[in-house]
Amino acid sequence: MISSAKSSFIAAFAEELLRAREYSGVSLDEVAAVTRISGEFLDALEAGRWEAIPQPYLRGYLRLYAQAVGMNVDKVLQGFDSGISTPDSEDSATLDFSSPLLRQPEHIGVTRAKIRAGWFTALTKHRKTAYLALAAAIVILGTGLYLSRRAQRPHISVSGLRALGCRERFGAGD
Q1: Which of 9, 16, 26, 35 has CB atoms 3.0–4.6 Å from 64's, for a disulfide?
Q2: Pair 68, 117 in one domain
Q3: 84 Cβ contact list (under 8 Å, min separation 6)
Q4: Are residues 156 and 117 in the same domain?
Q5: SS3 134
Q6: Is residue 22 part of a domain?
Q7: What is the extent of the structural domain holding 134?
């Protein structure tokens, strides 16, 4: 239930919104078109029936309404916050700072960047091993490349060339 002090604040605040819109000469339909807020919610905003507006949207609707009507947005929101935040015995909640029911995980300081850089750090600690592994990889790749090219090249012997008619180059006198 809303306290009488809060309900009187809401009524006065809503009346101020209505007067500001009427003073600027803007109709409720124009405000609805500019802000894209439902006319039903705008009517509830001006009438002080804020329980009809979804509470997560109330502050945002006030901001859009104030902009559309030409009010000082910061002052409207400050007035709203100060009027709504008055502590009531019914609405206030207390925070319990006792230990949580579930044990919280300990922060160990490991980030993704540290994990990604870990292999490089390990290699720099053992440079001789890294250089040896690099040299072995180069030798293995070079040998594989040499053997693959050698297998692709046709192998023709000297006697095979002679049979093809290349006698002048390889000793025509034989």
Answers
A1: 35
A2: no
A3: 6, 9
A4: yes
A5: helix
A6: yes
A7: 112-164
Check: pTM over 0.70? Answer yes or no.
Answer: no
- What pLDDT does residue 89 have? 44
Q: Categorize the per-residue pLDDT at 141 as very low, low, confident or very high, splitting at 50, 70 and 90.
A: very high
Of 52, 78, 76, whose CA–CA distance to 64 is shortest? 76
Is residue 170 assigned to a domain?
no
pLDDT in tens, 29-85: 999 999 999 989 999 998 989 899 988 899 999 999 899 888 888 998 888 888 877
Domain containing residue 66: CATH number:
1.10.260.40
Tell me the CA end-to-end span of the chain in Å, nearest whole number: 120
What's the CA gap between 42 and 62, in Å, rounded? 9
Query: Considering the domain boundaries, does residue 134 fall inside one?
Result: yes
Residue entry with tokens 């809303």: 2
Domain-located, residue 96: no
pLDDT in tens, 99-119: 555 565 565 666 666 666 766
